[in-house]
UniProtKB/TrEMBL annotation:
<dbReference type="GO" id="GO:0046872">
    <property type="term" value="F:metal ion binding"/>
</dbReference>
<keyword id="KW-0460">Magnesium</keyword>
<dbReference type="InterPro" id="IPR008949">
    <property type="entry name" value="Isoprenoid_synthase_dom_sf"/>
</dbReference>
<dbReference type="GO" id="GO:0004659">
    <property type="term" value="F:prenyltransferase activity"/>
</dbReference>
<dbReference type="Pfam" id="PF00348">
    <property type="entry name" value="polyprenyl_synt"/>
</dbReference>
<dbReference type="InterPro" id="IPR000092">
    <property type="entry name" value="Polyprenyl_synt"/>
</dbReference>
<dbReference type="InterPro" id="IPR033749">
    <property type="entry name" value="Polyprenyl_synt_CS"/>
</dbReference>
<protein>
    <recommendedName>
        <fullName>Polyprenyl synthetase family protein</fullName>
    </recommendedName>
</protein>
<dbReference type="GO" id="GO:0008299">
    <property type="term" value="P:isoprenoid biosynthetic process"/>
</dbReference>
<keyword id="KW-0808">Transferase</keyword>
<comment type="similarity">
    <text>Belongs to the FPP/GGPP synthase family.</text>
</comment>
<keyword id="KW-0479">Metal-binding</keyword>
């Protein structure tokens, strides 16, 4: 949990647990074991970045009903976990946050790998459907509720577009894509909007905010820092050691880091593309790709891009009409992104 105030953190954790528990009590007895796996997954605390940003935004824009803000923040965190459950199935990932993924846990229990994946997909769906009902419990007027639902839909539709691009280009890179904007588009759609832009927008709208220009400024700020956040994750995906290892290479992800290496190494481009598109890569092939990236200078180029994006984002942050106290809190979070 990012927020240093212990009571703030514990309030959010309790609200997340309460919402998931309210799902579990509805579940038919023979399905409870599987839904409880999702509860353990959700409560295996990550950074809680998205709900923290929502709460900072809500308080920074003068929100007074903290109960509503906690509920919506918890919903955003549960939606994040629903996306992770699906993402782990798509990427065939065995571990998340140091523990077996939901589909692996269930697959082991059922002694059927495919069934574990099928069940995990539906569990993710159920979590997202359950979240929707909490909009009906918010103490807001009709127009505010309408704006929130509209923004909520936009957020996760855009995220879905990013996921589709990521899937389509993973292990399917060609020469024509090298000079495209695809890695940046994936970073913006799949990460920036639901991680930064829209949690801040949700907090703003929940206060009753209705200035479309301020909303646009928030979104632009989120795009800059969100792309930087994904670029940093791309670095961890290749050079992160135990944080993430070489998963991105194994999965053939078309990241900004890989794209930069391809641009810097035209003489090796054909070989790198052939290796990255290979489905079952040998350890030495993964290491060869990593070595190409390491020696290309792409790492320094992407780090400079991260610094530039964060700098641009911080300038946009100054333009927001949020209180100086919470502007500073957001600035601290964003500054950490540049620390790759």
């Amino acid at each position: 949990m990012i927020e240093s105030n212990e009571s703030f953190a514990s309030l959010l954790e309790r609200r997340i647990e309460k919402i998931v528990q309210e799902l579990i009590i509805q579940v038919p007895e023979q399905l409870k074991t599987y839904i409880e796996v999702s509860k353990e997954f959700v409560m295996n605390s990550g950074k809680r970045l998205r709900p923290t940003l929502l709460l900072y935004s809500y308080l920074g824009y003068g929100g007074r009903n903290f109960e509503d803000a906690l509920t919506l923040a918890a919903v955003v965190e549960i939606m994040h976990n629903f996306l992770l459950i699906h993402d782990d199935v798509i990427d065939d990932s065995n571990f998340r946050r140091g523990k077996p993924t939901v589909h692996v846990t269930i697959g082991n229990a059922l002694r059927d790998e495919k069934l574990g994946k099928d069940v995990a997909i539906v569990i993710g769906d159920i979590l997202s459907f359950h979240c929707i009902r909490y909009f009906a419990l918010l103490s807001v007027d009709y127009l505010t509720l309408r704006r929130l639902i509209d923004a909520f839909s936009k957020c996760y539709v855009l995220t879905g577009f990013g996921q589709l691009l990521d899937i389509i280009y993973s292990g399917r890179i060609d020469e024509g894509a090298v000079d495209s904007e695809v890695p940046t588009e994936i970073s913006c759609l799949k990460t920036a909007y639901y991680t930064f832009s829209y949690p801040l927008v949700f907090g703003y709208l929940l206060t009753g905010g209705n200035d479309s220009e301020e909303e646009s400024r928030i979104i632009k700020f989120g795009e800059k820092v969100g792309i930087a956040f994904q670029y940093r994750d791309d670095i961890y995906g290749v050079f992160g050691g135990e944080r993430k290892s070489t998963n991105d290479i194994q999965e053939g992800k078309f990241t900004a880091l890989l794209q930069t290496a391809l641009k810097l190494l035209p003489e090796a481009r054909e070989e790198i593309i052939g290796l990255i598109n290979r489905k079952d890569k040998l350890p030495e092939e993964i290491e060869r790709i990593a070595e190409y990236i390491r020696n290309s200078g792409a790492l320094d180029v992407v780090r400079k891009k991260i610094e530039s994006l964060v700098s641009e984002g911080l300038k946009l942050l100054e333009e927001l009409k949020i209180s100086s106290e919470y502007k500073e809190k957001i600035k601290i979070l964003v500054t950490r992104i540049a620390e790759t």
